[in-house]
Amino acid sequence: MDRPALGGDDVDAVVIGSGPNGLVAANVLADAGWSVLVLEGAATPGGAVRTEEITAPGFRNDVFSAFYPMGAGSPVIRGLGLEEHGLRWVHAPEVLAHVLPDDRSVLLSRDLDRTAESVSAFAPGDGDAWRAEFALWQRIRDDVLDAVLRPFPPIRAGRGLLRSLGPAEALRLTRMLTQPVRAVGAEKFAGEGARLLFAGNTMHTDLGPDQSGGGVFAWLLTMLGQEIGFPVPEGGAGELTSALVRRLTSRGGRVECGRRVTGVLHARGRAVGVRDVSGTAVRARRAVLADVPAPNLYLDLVGRDSLPPRLIDDLRRFEWDDATMKVDWALSGPIPWTSPDARLAGTVHIGPDVNGLAGIANDLACGRTPRTPFLLLGQMTTTDPTRSPAGTEAAWVYTHVPRGEHWSADRLRRRVDRIEQVVEQHAPGFRDLVVSRSVQGPADLEQRNASLVGGAINAGTSGIHQQLVFRPVPGLARADTPIDRLFLAGSSAHPGGGVHGAPGANAARAALARDGWAGGGYGALIRTLNRAVYN
C-alpha cells in the first residue's frame, strides 16, 4: 500500500500528461463539473502535438505530429467546439501525392473528380471503383467512426451498421477491415495508383502491405482524406493544444508543466492521487487518468507488486511499434518537385510500388534499416502560409527504422544524407534550398517526449494482435485498470494511436460511470471481469 504524503493539491481528478488525450479527458471531466488538474513533466503542454522554432527564426516546425485527418474527423474533437477557442483548420491545395521511383505519381484530392481521374490513369475502371468506395464511406462514416473510437464492443455503432448495410454486407465490411492492405487493394482496384494510396497510408502505422488489419487504417485515412483532407491547425500543431488548454481553463481546469509524476498513490486497491518529482502529493477524490504508455503506467508509476502477476507477465509481451527518425527543414523556397502532383500536396509519400513497400516492411521486421526508405514528407508552408516567411518552406520528413538500435550522430548524419538524396532525385535542386535542419533520432524523440519510448510514435504496434480486446494486453478493451478509479487514457489504450482524442474521452467517460449513481455496480462488474482476465 502506497500512502500519500500530507499537503499538495486536492482535486476531483488528476490527469497525468498533457498530450491531446490527456487534455480531451480533462475537458470532458470539467464539462461534468469536476475540478481537474493536469500535470505535465515537460516545460510546455501538448505531448506530441507541439510547434517550435527548431530550425531557423521565423520557421514554425511541428516537433512531432503535423497532419490531423482523424482529429478533424473525430466526433470527440469536433464535439469540443475548439473553433470557439481559436482553432482554425487549414488545407494544402491537394491532400496527398504518392511519388514512384520513376516520378509517376497518384493524387488524393478533396475533389472526387481529381482523385478519380488520377487513379484512372493507372487503370481506366478505377475511377468508378473509387467513387463507389467513397459512396459506401459516406453512407456509413458516422457508424464506422463510432465503432472505431468508442469502447469495445461497439454495440450502438454495430446496430447502425447492420441497419445501413444488412448482415451480409456488414460481415463483408468486417472481413475487409481485417485484411492486409495488399489484399484490399487487389480486390477493389485493377491499377497500381489506387492500391498505392491505400498501401502508403497503411505505412503511417508499423504495418506493411501483407500484415492483417492494415486494411482498416488504409480505408479510414484515404476516405477521410477524400472527404475532409489532411488538415492542419493554422499557426502550428501546437494551436490544437492551445485551444484544448484554453477550453479547459475556461471551465476551471488547470495545467501545470514541469511537474513530472513519479508515482500513482493508491490504498486498498483504489487510486487516491499522485506524487510528483518534488515529492509533493496531489489528492484525487474521484479518479486518476494517465495519458502515458501502458508499460510506463503499470511498471513505473504503479509498481509490479500492486498488480496481478498475470498482467505483469502480459506486459512482457507488449509490442512497441517501429522506431522513427524525423528531419525538419527550413528551406529558402518551395521544393522543386518534378511531379506536378507533389508541388500541390501537403503530404507526399516517396516510395516504391506495393511489392517495394513490402520489402521495406520486411527489412524493418528483420531488424534491417532499408537502404532506400519509404518517406512521409510534409510541406507545411504549402499547407499553412503562416509557418514560414513568404517565399520559403517549412518541411519535414519521417521514416521508420528498426527498434533498439543505437544511432550515433555520425550514423544519423549519413541517414539524413540518404534521405535528402532520395528527395533530390525527385526534386533536383532541393539540397540547395536547405537553410537549416533539425534531426531527431529515436532517442531524441524519447528525450523530448518520454511517451515516445524508443522512438515509437503510436504507443504500441497497430498489429491486430494488439488491438481491440488485446490492447494494450488481453483484457477488456476499456480504460479501466485493475486499480479502482485509475484509468489508462493514452494511445496504448483502445483504439490506439492518432490525434483523435478517443482514448482520453473513453477514460473520462469510464471515470464518470464509476463515480455515477450506478458506480458501485459498475466498479463491482469491472473488478469481477478483471479477476477473470488476470487471476
TrEMBL record:
GO terms for molecular function: oxidoreductase activity. Residues 22-502 form the Amine oxidase domain. Signal peptide: none annotated. It comes from the Bacteria. InterPro entries: Amino_oxidase (IPR002937), FAD/NAD-bd_sf (IPR036188). Interacts with COX5B; this interaction may contribute to localize PYROXD2 to the inner face of the inner mitochondrial membrane. Probable oxidoreductase that may play a role as regulator of mitochondrial function. This is Pyridine nucleotide-disulfide oxidoreductase domain-containing protein 2. It comes from Umezawaea endophytica. The lineage of its organism: Bacteria, Bacillati, Actinomycetota, Actinomycetes, Pseudonocardiales.
